[in-house]
Amino acid sequence: MTLKTLDSWYGVLSRPFAKLPPPVRQIGVVLWRQAARELLNWKARSCSPSDPCRLHIGAGRNPLPLWLNTDISPNLRPLYFLDAGKRFPFRDNSLTYVFSEHVVEHLSYQSGMTMLSECFRTLRPGGKIRVTTPDLEKILSLYFVTQDGQREYKSWALKHNDLPRVPRAECFIINHFMRAWGHRFIYDEATLTNSLLQAGFVNVRRFEPGDSDDPNLSGIERHGLWIGERANRFETMVLQAEKPCGVALTKD
Questions:
Q1: 165 lies in a domain?
Q2: How many domains are there within the chain?
Protein backbone atom coordinates (compact mmCIF):
# COMPACT_ATOMS: atom_id res chain seq x y z
CA MET A 1 0.00 0.00 0.00
CA THR A 2 1.44 3.39 -0.98
CA LEU A 3 1.51 6.58 1.05
CA LYS A 4 -0.80 8.18 -1.51
CA THR A 5 -3.34 5.38 -1.02
CA LEU A 6 -3.24 5.74 2.76
CA ASP A 7 -3.70 9.50 2.51
CA SER A 8 -6.72 9.04 0.23
CA TRP A 9 -8.26 6.75 2.86
CA TYR A 10 -7.81 9.50 5.44
CA GLY A 11 -9.79 11.84 3.22
CA VAL A 12 -12.62 9.36 2.68
CA LEU A 13 -12.95 8.58 6.39
CA SER A 14 -12.65 12.16 7.62
CA ARG A 15 -15.74 13.48 5.83
CA PRO A 16 -18.36 11.36 7.65
CA PHE A 17 -16.58 11.90 11.00
CA ALA A 18 -16.92 15.66 10.61
CA LYS A 19 -20.72 15.33 10.45
CA LEU A 20 -21.10 13.31 13.66
CA PRO A 21 -22.29 14.85 16.98
CA PRO A 22 -19.38 16.27 19.05
CA PRO A 23 -19.34 13.51 21.74
CA VAL A 24 -19.27 10.79 19.12
CA ARG A 25 -16.70 12.70 17.10
CA GLN A 26 -14.43 13.00 20.17
CA ILE A 27 -14.49 9.24 20.65
CA GLY A 28 -13.73 8.82 16.97
CA VAL A 29 -10.75 11.19 17.22
CA VAL A 30 -9.28 9.17 20.11
CA LEU A 31 -9.60 5.98 18.09
CA TRP A 32 -8.25 7.73 15.02
CA ARG A 33 -5.14 8.91 16.86
CA GLN A 34 -4.39 5.36 17.95
CA ALA A 35 -4.87 4.23 14.36
CA ALA A 36 -2.57 7.04 13.21
CA ARG A 37 0.11 5.72 15.58
CA GLU A 38 -0.22 2.19 14.23
CA LEU A 39 -0.24 3.39 10.63
CA LEU A 40 3.06 5.21 11.16
CA ASN A 41 4.55 2.13 12.79
CA TRP A 42 3.49 0.11 9.74
CA LYS A 43 4.84 2.70 7.32
CA ALA A 44 8.11 2.96 9.26
CA ARG A 45 8.67 -0.79 8.94
CA SER A 46 8.01 -0.62 5.21
CA CYS A 47 10.65 2.03 4.40
CA SER A 48 13.26 0.50 2.13
CA PRO A 49 16.58 1.83 0.79
CA SER A 50 14.90 2.51 -2.56
CA ASP A 51 11.97 4.40 -0.96
CA PRO A 52 12.48 8.18 -0.62
CA CYS A 53 11.05 8.42 2.91
CA ARG A 54 10.56 12.05 3.92
CA LEU A 55 9.49 12.69 7.52
CA HIS A 56 7.56 15.85 8.38
CA ILE A 57 7.50 16.38 12.17
CA GLY A 58 4.68 18.47 13.63
CA ALA A 59 2.79 18.89 10.37
CA GLY A 60 -0.38 20.06 12.15
CA ARG A 61 -2.55 21.97 9.68
CA ASN A 62 0.24 22.08 7.09
CA PRO A 63 0.66 18.58 5.60
CA LEU A 64 3.04 18.39 2.63
CA PRO A 65 2.48 16.24 -0.46
CA LEU A 66 4.73 13.15 -0.70
CA TRP A 67 5.87 13.49 2.93
CA LEU A 68 5.05 11.35 5.97
CA ASN A 69 3.12 14.05 7.81
CA THR A 70 3.19 13.44 11.58
CA ASP A 71 1.99 15.23 14.69
CA ILE A 72 1.61 14.52 18.39
CA SER A 73 -2.09 15.40 18.00
CA PRO A 74 -3.08 13.95 14.63
CA ASN A 75 -6.56 14.93 13.51
CA LEU A 76 -8.59 13.53 10.65
CA ARG A 77 -6.36 15.05 8.00
CA PRO A 78 -3.57 12.86 6.60
CA LEU A 79 -1.43 12.85 9.74
CA TYR A 80 0.37 10.02 11.52
CA PHE A 81 1.11 10.02 15.26
CA LEU A 82 4.66 10.85 16.38
CA ASP A 83 5.94 12.13 19.72
CA ALA A 84 9.05 14.03 18.61
CA GLY A 85 10.59 13.86 22.08
CA LYS A 86 10.73 10.05 22.13
CA ARG A 87 12.32 7.29 20.06
CA PHE A 88 11.02 7.24 16.49
CA PRO A 89 9.52 4.00 15.11
CA PHE A 90 11.86 4.10 12.10
CA ARG A 91 14.84 1.82 11.57
CA ASP A 92 18.39 3.18 11.51
CA ASN A 93 19.38 4.89 8.24
CA SER A 94 15.88 4.65 6.74
CA LEU A 95 14.90 8.29 6.00
CA THR A 96 16.09 10.61 3.24
CA TYR A 97 14.82 13.91 4.68
CA VAL A 98 13.47 15.21 7.98
CA PHE A 99 11.68 18.54 8.25
CA SER A 100 10.21 20.31 11.28
CA GLU A 101 8.67 23.78 11.26
CA HIS A 102 8.03 25.60 14.53
CA VAL A 103 8.18 22.37 16.52
CA VAL A 104 11.46 22.14 18.45
CA GLU A 105 10.66 25.27 20.49
CA HIS A 106 7.69 23.38 21.96
CA LEU A 107 10.05 20.81 23.50
CA SER A 108 12.36 21.16 26.48
CA TYR A 109 16.04 21.44 25.58
CA GLN A 110 16.58 17.80 26.59
CA SER A 111 13.61 16.58 24.51
CA GLY A 112 14.83 18.72 21.63
CA MET A 113 18.18 16.93 21.77
CA THR A 114 16.33 13.61 21.75
CA MET A 115 14.48 14.70 18.63
CA LEU A 116 17.66 15.75 16.83
CA SER A 117 19.47 12.55 17.87
CA GLU A 118 16.57 10.46 16.58
CA CYS A 119 16.63 12.39 13.32
CA PHE A 120 20.34 11.59 13.02
CA ARG A 121 19.81 7.91 13.81
CA THR A 122 17.00 7.41 11.33
CA LEU A 123 18.42 9.46 8.44
CA ARG A 124 20.46 7.65 5.81
CA PRO A 125 24.08 8.70 5.28
CA GLY A 126 23.89 11.88 3.24
CA GLY A 127 20.33 12.51 4.42
CA LYS A 128 19.34 16.04 5.35
CA ILE A 129 17.49 17.70 8.21
CA ARG A 130 15.79 21.08 8.02
CA VAL A 131 14.73 22.77 11.27
CA THR A 132 12.64 25.93 11.15
CA THR A 133 12.13 27.71 14.47
CA PRO A 134 11.96 31.19 16.04
CA ASP A 135 15.24 33.04 16.40
CA LEU A 136 15.83 34.22 19.99
CA GLU A 137 18.25 36.92 18.84
CA LYS A 138 15.59 38.46 16.59
CA ILE A 139 12.96 38.40 19.33
CA LEU A 140 15.29 39.99 21.88
CA SER A 141 16.35 42.62 19.34
CA LEU A 142 12.89 44.15 19.72
CA TYR A 143 14.04 45.57 23.06
CA PHE A 144 17.29 47.12 21.88
CA VAL A 145 16.98 47.82 18.15
CA THR A 146 14.69 50.40 16.54
CA GLN A 147 15.17 49.63 12.86
CA ASP A 148 12.27 49.28 10.42
CA GLY A 149 12.07 45.49 10.77
CA GLN A 150 11.77 45.65 14.55
CA ARG A 151 9.20 48.46 14.43
CA GLU A 152 7.07 46.61 11.87
CA TYR A 153 7.16 43.34 13.81
CA LYS A 154 6.39 45.15 17.08
CA SER A 155 3.30 46.76 15.55
CA TRP A 156 2.19 43.42 14.11
CA ALA A 157 2.75 41.53 17.39
CA LEU A 158 0.78 44.02 19.48
CA LYS A 159 -2.20 43.78 17.16
CA HIS A 160 -1.98 40.06 16.38
CA ASN A 161 -1.68 39.04 20.04
CA ASP A 162 -3.89 41.78 21.51
CA LEU A 163 -1.13 43.04 23.81
CA PRO A 164 -1.13 46.33 25.79
CA ARG A 165 0.05 49.38 23.89
CA VAL A 166 2.15 50.89 26.66
CA PRO A 167 5.61 52.45 26.84
CA ARG A 168 8.25 49.73 26.24
CA ALA A 169 5.52 47.42 24.94
CA GLU A 170 8.30 45.17 23.62
CA CYS A 171 8.57 43.88 27.21
CA PHE A 172 5.06 42.43 26.82
CA ILE A 173 5.85 41.09 23.34
CA ILE A 174 8.98 39.24 24.49
CA ASN A 175 7.36 37.82 27.64
CA HIS A 176 4.34 36.69 25.65
CA PHE A 177 6.51 35.04 23.01
CA MET A 178 8.47 33.04 25.59
CA ARG A 179 5.33 31.66 27.24
CA ALA A 180 2.60 31.52 24.59
CA TRP A 181 1.63 28.66 22.27
CA GLY A 182 3.31 26.07 24.49
CA HIS A 183 6.83 27.37 23.90
CA ARG A 184 9.41 25.62 26.10
CA PHE A 185 12.85 26.61 24.78
CA ILE A 186 13.64 29.30 22.19
CA TYR A 187 16.96 28.81 20.39
CA ASP A 188 19.44 31.26 19.02
CA GLU A 189 21.46 30.25 15.97
CA ALA A 190 24.58 29.32 17.93
CA THR A 191 22.70 27.02 20.35
CA LEU A 192 20.72 25.23 17.65
CA THR A 193 23.85 24.84 15.53
CA ASN A 194 25.69 23.33 18.49
CA SER A 195 22.76 20.97 19.17
CA LEU A 196 22.83 19.73 15.58
CA LEU A 197 26.59 19.21 15.76
CA GLN A 198 26.24 17.35 19.07
CA ALA A 199 23.67 15.07 17.46
CA GLY A 200 26.26 14.22 14.79
CA PHE A 201 25.23 16.43 11.88
CA VAL A 202 27.67 18.35 9.70
CA ASN A 203 27.55 21.22 7.22
CA VAL A 204 25.06 23.28 9.25
CA ARG A 205 23.89 26.27 7.24
CA ARG A 206 21.27 28.96 7.63
CA PHE A 207 18.62 29.78 5.04
CA GLU A 208 15.66 32.10 4.76
CA PRO A 209 12.21 30.46 4.97
CA GLY A 210 11.42 28.86 1.63
CA ASP A 211 15.02 28.95 0.39
CA SER A 212 17.34 25.94 0.05
CA ASP A 213 20.09 24.61 -2.16
CA ASP A 214 18.13 21.33 -2.31
CA PRO A 215 14.96 21.41 -4.47
CA ASN A 216 13.30 18.89 -2.16
CA LEU A 217 13.62 21.35 0.74
CA SER A 218 12.68 24.53 -1.13
CA GLY A 219 9.33 26.19 -0.58
CA ILE A 220 8.11 23.82 2.14
CA GLU A 221 7.64 26.30 5.01
CA ARG A 222 3.99 27.15 5.70
CA HIS A 223 4.07 29.16 8.95
CA GLY A 224 3.93 32.42 7.02
CA LEU A 225 0.49 31.49 5.69
CA TRP A 226 -0.86 31.81 9.24
CA ILE A 227 1.01 34.79 10.68
CA GLY A 228 1.97 36.61 7.47
CA GLU A 229 5.15 36.25 5.45
CA ARG A 230 6.80 39.45 6.70
CA ALA A 231 6.32 38.56 10.37
CA ASN A 232 7.47 35.01 9.69
CA ARG A 233 10.64 36.11 7.92
CA PHE A 234 11.48 38.42 10.81
CA GLU A 235 11.07 35.91 13.65
CA THR A 236 12.10 32.66 11.93
CA MET A 237 15.45 31.03 11.27
CA VAL A 238 16.03 27.92 9.19
CA LEU A 239 19.00 25.63 9.77
CA GLN A 240 19.78 22.79 7.39
CA ALA A 241 22.36 20.05 8.04
CA GLU A 242 23.46 16.66 6.76
CA LYS A 243 24.30 13.24 8.14
CA PRO A 244 27.88 12.43 7.08
CA CYS A 245 28.05 10.01 4.16
CA GLY A 246 30.51 7.77 6.01
CA VAL A 247 28.16 7.24 8.97
CA ALA A 248 25.86 4.23 8.71
CA LEU A 249 25.52 3.31 12.37
CA THR A 250 23.63 4.93 15.20
CA LYS A 251 25.16 7.15 17.87
CA ASP A 252 23.35 5.30 20.68
A1: no
A2: 1
